[in-house]
Design brief:
By secondary structure, the chain is α/β, with parallel strands linked by helices. The chain folds into two domains: 270 residues, Zn peptidases (Aminopeptidase, 3-Layer(aba) Sandwich), CATH 3.40.630; 154 residues, Glucose Oxidase, domain 1 (3-Layer(bba) Sandwich). Helix 2 runs antiparallel to helix 14, helix 3 crosses helix 9 and helix 9 crosses helix 14. The longest helix is centred in the first third of the chain and has 30 residues.
Length: 474
C-alpha cells in the first residue's frame, strides 16, 4: 500500500513538473505577440539599474527634510507643490504643471486628555482629522467602553453626557488587510457618539504598535465637514491603561478631553503633474500622494511613494527614444483628508480616461515589494504573466486579478481604467502609519531600490506592450 502511494505520488509530481515545463516552454511563444525579446532585455536592464539607483532616496531625503510635514491645504503643502515642480523639471520631465482645486481645511491647535478620577493621570492622544473643538477648557465625562464599533452601534445604553471609548484592536497582517476592519471606528465613532447623545469620542489608535504614539487620520469620510462630535485616538498603551482603569475602578472613570482645532470651508491644494511624452497619446499614470499628516514627516506615507515612482519613471525616460505611450507621474494632493486630489484629477481628465491604459499608486510605505496583482480584462490576463515572470527574480510573487491600484487611482479604477498593485510588505507599516514615528530613519534604502527596480520594469512594460489591458481586443 505504502509503495503504491509513493509510486502514485511520484507519478503525479513528474506529471506536474512536465506540465509546468511545457507551460514554461510555451510562455515565450504566447508572449511574443505582446513584447519583443529586445524589450524584455530592456526591462531586465532597468531592474539592474534600479537596484543601484539612489535617486528615490535623495528625493525622499529632500522632501522630508526641506519641507517636512505637509498637511492638506496648508502652507507646507503649497511649498511641497513648488518642490514637486522644481524636482520634475530638474529630472527632465515635460509638461510639468500644478492642477489646483479647492478643499475644506482642518488643522490641530492643541490636544490633551487626562483621567480626572479615580486615578488621576495624563493620557496620550491625538485629535482625528476634522474633529471639532471641545468648548474652551474641554469636556469632562464618564467613560463608557465598547469592545467594538458594532457593540457601540447596537447599544441601547443611555450615553447622554458620556464620553464613549471604542477599544477595538487592529490585526497585524503582511498585506494590510487588518486595516479595513479597524479603520471603521475612526470614521464612524464620532457620528454614532453624537447620535446617542455622547459629548465626545475616544478610540484605540488604528495601528499595530505598542508605543506611546497615537495614530491620527480622518474622522469623517470625504473630509468635507467637521465630525459631529469631538474625537481623538489614544495611543495603544494608553488605551490599555484606560481599559484597566475601567476594570479596576469601583465606580465611574471620568476623563477630561480638551481639543482645539481650526476649520475653513475653503483652501487650495493641487496635483503636481509631469510627463515623459510617448509616441502616442495613450497614458500610463503612476505616482504617490504629496500631502501627509502633521505628526511625522510623511516619509513612509507617502513621501516614499512619490520618490519611488518619480525615480522609476525617470529611469524609463532616460532610455534612448520615446516610449510607445506617454508616462504621466502625478503627485496627488490632499489624499489624507478625503481623496480630494484623486477626485479632482478624475474630473479634470474625464474626457481622456479612455486613453488611460494603466494606472497605479505607491502608497503603502517603503518596504520590499513581495506581490504583484492586476485588474485586467479577461482577454488581457496573459499579459499579467509577463509582468509576474520578469518581477519574480526580485522576490515578487504573483497575486490575483483583484488589484486595488491605490487610493488616488480608485476613481480611475471605478471608471474602468486597468490598475496594478506592487504590494509592499506591510507587516510593520501600521506601527508607523499616521504617527510621529513616520520619519526618514524608518526607511531602508535597499528596499527603496528594490521598489524602484520593480516599478521601472512595470512602467516600461506597460508603456511598450502591444494592446491594452482592458481586454484582448484593446
Amino acid at each position: 500500500m505504502l509503495n503504491r502511494k509513493f509510486a502514485a505520488g511520484m507519478a503525479l509530481v513528474v506529471g506536474l513538473c512536465a506540465a509546468a515545463s511545457l507551460a514554461a516552454a510555451q510562455t515565450p511563444d504566447v508572449e511574443e505577440k505582446f513584447i519583443t525579446a529586445k524589450e524584455e532585455q530592456t526591462a531586465k536592464r532597468l531592474i539592474e539599474k534600479g537596484l543601484k539607483d539612489d535617486t528615490a532616496w535623495t528625493l525622499l531625503e529632500s522632501l522630508t527634510t526641506e519641507i517636512g510635514p505637509r498637511l492638506a491645504g496648508s502652507e507646507a503643502e503649497a511649498r511641497a507643490r513648488d518642490w514637486g515642480v522644481q524636482t520634475l523639471k530638474r529630472l527632465g520631465f515635460k509638461n510639468v504643471r500644478i492642477e489646483t482645486f479647492e478643499l475644506a481645511y482642518w488643522n490641530r491647535i492643541s490636544e490633551r486628555a487626562e483621567i480626572v478620577s479615580p486615578f488621576p493621570q495624563k493620557l496620550v492622544i491625538t485629535a482625528l482629522g476634522h474633529s471639532p473643538s471641545t468648548p474652551d477648557g474641554g469636556v469632562v465625562g464618564e467613560v463608557v467602553r465598547f469592545e467594538t464599533l458594532d457593540a457601540l452601534e447596537t447599544s441601547g445604553a443611555d450615553l447622554s453626557g458620556k464620553i464613549i471609548f471604542v477599544d477595538e484592536a487592529m490585526t497585524r497582517t503582511q498585506d494590510g488587510s487588518g486595516y479595513g476592519a479597524a479603520v471603521q471606528k475612526r470614521s464612524r465613532a464620532a457620528i454614532v457618539a453624537a447620535e446617542k447623545g455622547a459629548i465626545a469620542a475616544l478610540i484605540r489608535s488604528v495601528g499595530t504598535d505598542s508605543h506611546r504614539n497615537p495614530h491620527t487620520g480622518g474622522s469623517v469620510r470625504g473630509g468635507a465637514a467637521l465630525a459631529p462630535a469631538p474625537i481623538a485616538a489614544l495611543s495603544n498603551p494608553d488605551a490599555d491603561q484606560l481599559a484597566r482603569a475601567l476594570r479596576l475602578a469601583k465606580g465611574p472613570v471620568r476623563v477630561r478631553l480638551d481639543i482645539q482645532t481650526e476649520f475653513k470651508k475653503s483652501a487650495i491644494s493641487g496635483n503636481v503633474i509631469g510627463e515623459i511624452p510617448g509616441k502616442s497619446d495613450e497614458l500610463i499614470v503612476v505616482g504617490g500622494h504629496l500631502d501627509s499628516w502633521d505628526l511625522g514627516t510623511g516619509a513612509i506615507d507617502d513621501g516614499a511613494g512619490v520618490a519611488i515612482t518619480v525615480a522609476a519613471a525617470k529611469l524609463v525616460g532616460d532610455l534612448k527614444g520615446k516610449p510607445a505611450r506617454t508616462i504621466r507621474v502625478v503627485m496627488w494632493g490632499a489624499e489624507e483628508t478625503g481623496l480630494w486630489g484623486a477626485r479632482a484629477y478624475a474630473k479634470a481628465h474625464k474626457e481622456e480616461l479612455a486613453r488611460h491604459v494603466l494606472a497605479a499608486e505607491s502608497d503603502f510605505g517603503a518596504a520590499r515589494i513581495w506581490k504583484f496583482q492586476t485588474r485586467f480584462g479577461d482577454g488581457a490576463l496573459a499579459k499579467a504573466k509577463i509582468f509576474q515572470r520578469l518581477l519574480h527574480p526580485l522576490g515578487v510573487g504573483a497575486g490575483n486579478n483583484q488589484a486595488f491600484g491605490g487610493p488616488d487611482v480608485s476613481p480611475l479604477r471605478a471608471a474602468g481604467v486597468p490598475v496594478v498593485d506592487l504590494y509592499q510588505d506591510g507587516s510593520d507599516y501600521f506601527d508607523l502609519h499616521h504617527t510621529p514615528d513616520d520619519t526618514l530613519d524608518k526607511v531602508n534604502p535597499d528596499a527603496v531600490q528594490q521598489n524602484v527596480a520593480a516599478w521601472a520594469a512595470t512602467i516600461y512594460l506597460a508603456s511598450q506592450m502591444d494592446g491594452g489591458f482592458r481586454d484582448e481586443a484593446d
